[in-house]
């Protein structure tokens, strides 16, 4: 299969390209710069110079492919417009793909977020809000719910749009990725940010009792799921790239603390407001987002094979020796 991949030089992208090529697919990766073109070429992909701003170019590239995997985002919009601007631009990209692929039955697999389903909950500061695990059958949050705010609501419009392309003859699906995607090449994900914050503060904080739960997955396992969704995933589905389905945030904090030699401490409610202890991470660290992968395993035969989060923390790459 001739596969177009966007985001080939991001965290998950190189693993996705390598997994596709190992499975016998021909990969063309969108490359914004000479450096990006060289990086994807080194992985064995054909570089196609272009950018996410060029919607006509994306439509042309999609038409020339047998399928599309999209994991890129307009990160350049973050400083001026925040995540809402990024999501708004992504919506236009999804509509462009829909125009290019309508009626073809070709697969379009797009990255989403575990933090999007309707059972999403907030762990109230100092409290124990424990919602049920999200399943693949939970739809994205409606775009107009007053109880949901900002970037989550905008992000969900993108997911709803992708799933809706199934009605236009596109074999579209979403791969929902949890807060933590870990690997040896994780340099800018939430885990390195949490580690950096702990070093800065001298303690590893967790909100309230730390009972709110996060999911996690290795980037190599994410890559294999994107390939399986591309190869055989039915249209209009959500898939969960979740290996560790439910890790209490306190356990994550304690694991980081034990490796840094720092105490893990509860952050009280009055410090769980912006710009409190966690800063821009405040809204994230209080989320309770356990998630199930049962439907994904059964429907696609996906089996995570890489180390879980706590085991991967022992492999040294997050805590290099001084």
Keywords:
single chain, 322 residues, alpha/beta, seven-stranded parallel beta sheet, three-stranded mixed beta sheet, 37% helix
The structural class is alpha/beta
Mean pLDDT: 89
Strands, total number:
14
As a whole number of angstroms, the C-alpha radius of gyration is: 19 Å
H/E element string? EHEHEHEHEEHEEHEEHEEHEHEHH
Main beta sheet, described?
Answer: 7 strands, parallel
Low-confidence stretches: 119-130, 144-151
Count of alpha and pi helical runs: 11
Which geometry do the CA atoms define?
globular
Terminal CA distance reads: 45 Å
Which strand order does the major sheet show? Answer: 3-2-1-4-5-7-11
Estimated share of beta-strand residues: 15-25%
Give the fraction of residues assigned to helices: 25-40%
Describe the 3D structure:
The protein has helices at residues 13-22, 34-42, 55-63, 78-101, 150-164, 190-201, 219-232, 249-260, 282-285, 294-300, 309-312; strands spanning 2-6, 26-31, 46-49, 67-70, 107-113, 121-122, 171-177, 180-182, 204-207, 213-218, 237-240, 244-248, 264-267, 287-288. It is α/β, with parallel strands linked by helices and 322 residues long. Strands 3-2-1-4-5-7-11 form a seven-stranded parallel β-sheet, with helices on both faces. A three-stranded mixed β-sheet has the order 8-10-12. A two-stranded antiparallel ribbon has the order 6-14.
């Amino acid at each position: 299969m001739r596969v177009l991949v966007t985001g080939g030089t991001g965290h998950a992208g190189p693993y996705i390209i390598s997994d596709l090529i190992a499975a016998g697919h021909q990969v063309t990766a969108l490359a914004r710069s000479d450096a990006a073109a060289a990086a994807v070429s080194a992985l064995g992909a054909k570089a196609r110079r272009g950018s996410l701003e060029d919607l006509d170019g994306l439509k042309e590239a999609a038409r020339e492919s047998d399928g599309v995997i999209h994991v890129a985002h307009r990160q350049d919009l973050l400083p001026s417009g925040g995540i809402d601007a990024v999501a708004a631009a992504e919506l236009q990209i999804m509509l462009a793909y829909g125009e290019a692929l309508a009626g073809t039955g070709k697969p379009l697999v797009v990255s989403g977020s575990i933090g999007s389903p309707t059972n999403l909950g907030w762990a109230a500061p100092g409290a124990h809000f424990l919602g049920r695990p999200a399943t693949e059958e939970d739809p994205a949050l409606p775009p107009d719910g007053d109880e949901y705010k900002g970037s989550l609501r905008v992000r969900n419009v993108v997911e709803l749009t992708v799933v809706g392309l199934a009605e236009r003859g596109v074999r579209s699906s979403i791969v929902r990725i949890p807060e933590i995607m870990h690997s040896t090449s994780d340099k800018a994900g939430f885990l390195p940010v949490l580690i950096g914050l702990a070093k800065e503060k001298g303690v590893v904080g967790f909100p309230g009792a730390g009972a709110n739960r996060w999911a996690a997955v290795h980037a190599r396992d994410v890559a294999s799921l994107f390939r399986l969704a591309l190869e055989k995933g039915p249209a209009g589905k959500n898939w969960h790239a979740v290996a560790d389905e439910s890790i209490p945030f306190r356990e994550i904090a304690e694991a980081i603390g034990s490796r840094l030699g720092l105490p893990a401490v509860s952050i009280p409610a009055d410090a769980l407001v912006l710009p409190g202890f966690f800063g821009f991470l405040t809204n994230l660290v209080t989320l309770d987002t356990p998630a199930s992968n049962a439907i994904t395993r059964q429907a696609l035969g996906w089996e995570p094979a890489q180390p879980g989060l706590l085991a991967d923390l022992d492999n040294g790459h997050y805590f290099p020796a001084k």
